[in-house]
Amino acid sequence: MSAERGEPIRAEQCDSVRVCLDGGWLEVGVGETILQAAERAGREIPTLCFDRRLAPFGACRLCLVGVQGAGAPLPACTTRCHDGMVVDTTDERARRVVRTVLELVLSELPGDPLPGSELDVLARRLGVARSRFAGRTHERRHDERHPYLLLESELCISCGRCVRICDELQGAFALTATGRGFDASIAAGLDSGFANSSCVSCGACAHTCPTGAIRERLDTL
Question: What is the pLDDT of residues 2-26, one digit of tens each?
Fold first, then answer.
């Protein structure tokens, strides 16, 4: 897109912008986020609430990165790139915050993360074997009323992915967020169970869950 003679071309008039990511410059599309730019550059930024099938949510705060000129680390999934932006995905201040947030998440679980879950893989990758914070943990509470899915509420970290994918992608509206703060969780059928909900057994919630709080029942496979 060209500007009229005598007027400077602004970044928003172009199809792309240049971003410095971890010391290297790259072109990204106008409107792309830092997370998208990092993927383009082959950099992996940790996330827990992000699912590329859904609009960025920015709830987990694990994708924080350093941005030159910003007063604090910014979430990569919701922060859009601008021309000349300088990003450091290894910023130590951001890494400290991320590790602390992850420890707080782990501190609420009654035990270790489910082996092989996104949470488990991420904790191992960031070197967070256990939490420094001791306190109240979620009680084990299972909903086994669905013929194909198992809901273990104590593993829920309230990332919102299951509720959003059920609503926005499948249009089933079978899940709902319940409680606030520490007591926040998800429930099916207004807490009457999957069997009495509008669930269509698509399995999208189990596929997106990063902790295994909702997963397929092995006894029915």
Answer: 334 444 445 456 689 999 999 999 9
HSE-up of 199 (CA within 13 Å, CB side)? 28
> Does 101 map to a domain?
no
DSSP string, the chain: --PPTTSPPPGGGSSEEEEEETTEEEEEETT-BHHHHHHHTT-----SS--TTS-----S--SEEEETT-SS-EETTTPBP-TTEEEETT-HHHHHHHHHHHHHHHHTSSSSPPTTSHHHHHHHHTT--S-S-----PPP-EE--SSSEEEEGGG-----HHHHIIIIII----EEEE-SGGG-EEEETTTT-GGGS------HHHHH-SSSSEEE-GGG-
Q: For all residues of the chain together, what is the average pLDDT? A: 88
User: Looking only at Cα atoms, what is the longest distance across the chain?
Assistant: 71
Which string of b and e fits 98-136 if b means at least 16 CB within 10 Å?
Answer: bbebbbebbebbeeebbeebbbbebbeeeebeebeeeee
Say if residues 189 and 205 touch (Cβ distance below 8 Å).
Answer: no
Residue 106 inside a domain? The answer is: no
Rg from Cα positions in the chain: 20
Helices 92-107/118-125 angle, 10° precision:
140
Domain containing 60: what range?
A: 11-91
Asked if residue 113 belongs to a domain, the reply is: no
pTM above 0.90, yes or no: no
